[in-house]
Design a protein that fits this description.
- One of its GO terms (biological process) is response to cold.
- By secondary structure, the protein is of the alpha+beta class.
- Helix content is about 30%, strand content about 30%.
- The chain contains eleven helices and 27 strands.
- Strands 17, 18, 19, 20, 21, 22, 23, 24, 25, 26 and 27 form an eleven-stranded mixed β-sheet that branches.
- Strand 19 and strand 20 (about 440-450) form a beta hairpin.
- Helix 5 packs across helix 7.
- The longest helix has about 30 residues, at about 580-610.
- The protein is globular, with a radius of gyration of 26 Å.
Amino acid sequence: MLSFFWLRCLLKMVKGNIVVPEDILSFCCNGLQGSTSPQCTQDTGEQQEEAAGAMGGHNPTEVQMSQLVLPCHSNQHGELSAGQLLKWIDTAACLSAERHAGCPCVTASMDDIYFEHTISVGQVVNIKAKVNRAFNSSMEVGIQVSYEDLCSGKHCSICKAYATFVAQGPPGTKVKLKPLTPQTEEEKIEHSIAAERRRMRLVHKDTLKDLLTRSTSNAEMETRDGSVVVPAEKTRVESVELVLPPHANHQGNTFGGQIMAWMENVATIAASRLCHAHPTLRAIEMFHFRGPSQVGDRLVLKAIVNNAFKNSMEVGVCTEAYDQEMSVSRRHINSAFMTFVVLDEEGQPRTLPMVVPQPGDGERRYREASARKKIRLDRKYVVSCKQTEVPLSVPWDQSNKVYLSYNNVSALKTLVAKANWVLAREKEKVQIYTLEEDKFLSFRIEMLVHISASQAFSLLSDLRRRHEWDSHYESAELVQQVDEDDAIYHVLSQTLSRENKPQDFVILASRRKPCSRGDPYVVAFRSVTLPTHPASSTYTRGETLCSGFCVWPESEEMSKVAYYNQATPGYLNYVTTNVVGLSSNFCATFEACEKFLLKNKDDLIARLQQL
């Protein structure tokens, strides 16, 4: 009976974003889109049912996995090892991907994972995975991980992850994935933003290379008074693993989750050699699998502490494979960077020893780790924080430009996907909708225009021409053309502030063409700060929340143009007493926008033909 009990315990249960009030009229409000931090809650039965409904239980790609944490899954603290959790995450995500693809799938990459809590033996890990969006042969799978205390009924979120899987067809063939149709509001938001996350992944390597190229020569060795100094070489770990059938997936390739678990193991050993204590994994940076390995391969895993900061350390891990005969050189399978901390008895991070790198590659890894830390902090700060926890105008620099652009577009896409818009006024061809949500009041103004979507997109995305149709704009200077899709403008408004001074704004404009059929053209705006354009006593510097245009093609010569604008509580009283005047102003401005588009579309066509 005892053996049967443990056998039952081991079974997997798999089921299948203050706005200056006057600026609302200038159509230029934007802000941050973020996710809330995980919170522990005491769920009632009704709350759990509502949560299940919010997850979209009818989604055919959704997979639910529940695992009881046993001693064999734990580390020296009696807590679930991060490696085991990574295996379960990868398994659930793969099953979800294969439900949609209808064929074998392999893990291509995993986005940053931040572990907010640990899980103890005897608690239950609940994992939900579902496909957010399918592209050509790859798809994004969203994974939510929480734990459940069976005795107290306590539920707590652990992490949220995004993995990319690639469908595998017969040798020499490519699998064309069918599109995924989102049903719920949450699914529509995730589906829309998935295209933006994919774009961020594709430029991730170039972002790192660009920042490291500029920062490597400027970085200096950190000094800390009274700190113990440890040579980095003393933390080096090398281990070999023989890939056996239990380590392989149903395709005969080494299970990606197993490789991640082995990598976490050697990284933990390297971190322990620095601090002479048991470290806790806090984050894994975005990584990509470079190629497969099979049963019979030998995997060589190498780890070393690249840099130790005051309360955290980065460990670099590399995985290579070779076959029994070593007939070819070792194949690079994967590299990852993991962040560890050492917690004291009160659960607070301890001060760590300093690392002295070896000359050459060691010094390079040391400086690169410092640059990666800045990127991680920027990425987490911009992408993951609540709207109310960060300034609306985030400083712009090379390290966070990709993430500010991502946040700018994803904030607008999230607003677009909201379901409870209410028609507030309709005047001829212009419809005005409102959305009251939490402390925000949002507006949507839309109409059909006889212009192609691409032409409207080109005309509306250039803020230097905004004054031609928006009476609240005086001028817009192009400060910096960041890249093909992003530009920063210094905008002067004719609208006076409460201090009876004209307003100015520093605006990041992000453009996106459709990723696939059904997607709109997007032009998103948000405030940033630049050292070259500080606030001036001549103007009142405005900060904005969330706004922009979406343009859907209705036909080759007809488009639906929609403008979205989100206001903060400081504007609600103004709106309450000026609804009629506000609506009239919106309609008048949007009608002027239509005339601008129709007047300039022929000139635009002529210019394009000359190119």
